[in-house]
Design goal:
The chain contains 15 helices and two strands. The chain has 324 residues and is an all-alpha fold.
Length: 324
């Protein structure tokens, strides 16, 4: 546990400093420094700052996902090659060939999980900051970059009558449950889970090729679509309201970012690419990845083939002459 705390310490200082920075900024422009909405805005802008810094990683994730989809036919050939071979030598050989295949395409089986894994230190460090505010406030102590006054201000701040430092489990176990905390926590947990589920579903239905939808990559995506929201939904009952705001805001950022990518830079061969090409055709633009000259040449060639086929169908058949 000490080793984990040692790793999280710089992240804890970074997240608490960003929280302090945005809180001070909003206070300077006239917002009430002790209002729960000022702290909520600060949490949301911390989320935006962290996610904006992770944009290069998101771009790498997109490239890795497309590489994974491109190698689906080769993966199926590999599985067919070792089908029915359950001995240890065959299994090791298949894994070695699979690793070599991933390496040649510069991707991996869990490449799509990378942004989520990178976010974990930021998430857990903010969790330790927000979940200890009540204790630190009672002993008049600061937390990382937050002073004792900031900790008290956060601990006492409310939205819709619920403290940002309260949790669903905490209020139920207090002996005097706060209905405002229960309602706000449930709403935030539902929003967090729904946004995460819809993000993954959108990826599967819009931005995957037919080969990827039929391959083993699809099983991984389906597993993530159901398991991750379930894990965060169950864990959410222990999260402070402030942390639920952070994670929901992060999910909404991911959803918006993915919607932009799917609309303007879809995976080749996906439904989203077909829809983009339809929109481009309506505007008189060539399909994605082709110049106007290439599109016109292909259209002319297709028209010539269609005309040739039509002429061939219309050509009269010579009647067989009767033999005398």
């Amino acid at each position: 546990m000490d080793f984990i705390n040692l790793i999280l310490t710089p992240f804890r200082y970074l997240m608490s400093w960003l929280l302090w920075l945005f809180h001070e900024g909003f206070s300077l422009i006239g917002l009430d420094p002790n209002s729960g909405w000022t702290w909520t805005l600060s949490i949301i802008f911390v989320t935006i700052g962290v996610r904006a810094a992770l944009i290069p990683l998101f771009a790498r994730q997109i490239r890795a996902q497309r590489a994974m989809q491109a190698l689906q036919p080769e993966l199926r050939k590999l599985q067919a090659k070792y089908k029915g071979k359950k001995d240890q030598v065959s299994q090791q050989a298949m894994l070695a060939e699979q690793r070599a295949l991933f390496k040649s395409h510069n991707t991996g089986m869990f490449s799509s999980c990378l942004p989520l894994l990178v976010q974990m230190p930021f998430f857990f460090s903010l969790y330790t900051v927000l979940s200890t505010t009540s204790k630190a406030s009672g002993s008049n102590e600061g937390i990382a970059a937050l002073s004792a006054a900031h900790v008290r201000s956060f601990d006492e701040s409310k939205i819709f009558g619920a403290k940002l430092s309260d949790t669903f489990v905490g209020t139920l176990g207090s002996g005097n449950p706060n209905m405002a905390v229960i309602v706000v926590a449930i709403v935030m947990i539902i929003a967090m889970v729904a946004s995460q589920f819809f993000t993954q579903r959108q990826l599967m239905t819009k931005n995957m090729t037919k080969e990827a939808l039929e391959g083993p990559f699809m099983r991984q995506q389906k597993m993530m679509m159901y398991i991750l929201p379930l894990v965060f939904g169950i864990g959410g009952i222990n999260f402070p309201i402030g942390l639920l705001i952070y994670w929901t805001a992060s999910n909404l950022w991911t959803l918006g970012q993915q919607m932009w990518v799917i609309k303007y830079n879809p995976t080749p061969g996906s439904l989203a690419e077909k829809e983009l090409n339809i929109r481009r055709a309506a505007k008189g633009l060539p399909p994605v990845g082709k110049t106007k000259a290439q599109a016109e040449a292909e259209a002319a060639e297709a028209e010539e083939k269609a005309q040739a086929q039509q002429q061939q169908r219309q050509q009269p058949q010579r009647k067989n002459r009767r033999k005398k």
